UniProtKB/TrEMBL annotation:
Name of the molecule in the record: Serine/threonine-protein kinase vrk1
PROSITE patterns to which the protein is assigned, alphabetical: PROTEIN_KINASE_ATP (PS00107), PROTEIN_KINASE_DOM (PS50011)
One Pfam assignment: Pkinase
Family annotation (InterPro entries): CK1_Ser-Thr_kinase, Kinase-like_dom_sf, Prot_kinase_dom, Protein_kinase_ATP_BS
Amino acid sequence: MPKAKATASSAKFQKKLVQDFPTNFLIQANSKSSYSIIKQIGFGGFGRIYSCCPTEDKKKLYAVKIEYRTQKKLDFLGIPRYYGSGKVVSPSNEECRFLITDLFASDLESSLSKGTHSLKDIPAIAIRTLHSLRYIHSVGYAHADLKAANLLKNGSGVEYFLLDFGIASLYQTTNGVHKEEIVDKKRKHDGTLEFSPRDSHTGLIPTRRWDMESFFINIVHWLARASDSHLQSDICAALPWTAPVKDPKVREKVTPALMEKVAQLKFKAFEDPKSWLASVKLDKFPALFDLFGEISNLTYKQEPDYVKIEKILRNLQCQLPSPDQRKKRASNRQAGASSSPAPDMRSPAVKRTRLSQKKSTNEDAHPVLNYAQLAIVEQLQSKPKVKSTIKKQISNSSVLADLSIISEDSSLKEAESNNNQETIGGIQLDQPERSDKVTQAKAY
């Protein structure tokens, strides 16, 4: 595998790359299955990839990824706990799928409408969202639908969980290689029209760059929503390209012509960020321009410098004014909401939804939501320890394993070419204790 050009952050990480494992080295899974290392077939910022085989059947080949445990401990990772999933027949005799996760009380969009958060809260929320995105990216997925309505929480505070992986997509092949930059006109305007990146309007598949540009768009939107001067009658006022779809009736059925108009306005705003941010009174914060530059200059396959982005967000938090007159702001917003109801951002203009997943030729394959949520942050320890992940493909369907195993057989390659509907085993990690045991059944 050719070595990619390293960024400053990835170069720093590569110094900690796990030591090479020799041929015939045995690794033991929690399931008590053991595998024998054959040879290294690649490496990247998250570890080394080897071919391996089960000790009981050396004719079967798999791929194993081995990496150090992360040394920096996170006190929170906004990925909801996965309790279970399956299929159920509805009262109208339709076959549905369901997913059981934690039950959450409110979403960020609702909190912003109520004036719950100050400007200084937004970078804190963004940093936690960045951690969630970074973890999702580390297992090969792009979320592809980041927005405030998909960030949910229980209680007060800024600890939001990222949900709705309905159109999440693998940006890597099953052996860890980034997919090529190929335009697919059928994928044009995928995602939520207001918050999708420029890549969505050209028909490119979701990638880390996709998520990060959407991340910046959302931050601008959140800052405007948390601002005292923001008009609640137009909750997307910070996003100038949303003007053509501002009317709720238009949003119910957005035509291709309107999508193209939105795309043109979005490209125009990104060409002149100074005018864009000045129009919403956010041009007085240098860190916001630093964030724009860091994200807008990402190449298609480039890994974002998450550490640098987090530092920029912390600088932004220092530059933002302290909260004042929060009660007055909240009462003003409630009064404005009663006279001019704001459109529901939880049902935005979306072309591609979870229903499109039905086109998969693999009827038994679980959607990517299960596996992105199965990988919960591991309990971090002071000394680096080696962990291994193996992904196993059985009967064209992924199964949960203590080590996530990727099969190299023909069925996996066939799944990879099947309209990006390949499935990938979840990573079984230690999960942090949680007190909330309430679950919900969510159809998807």
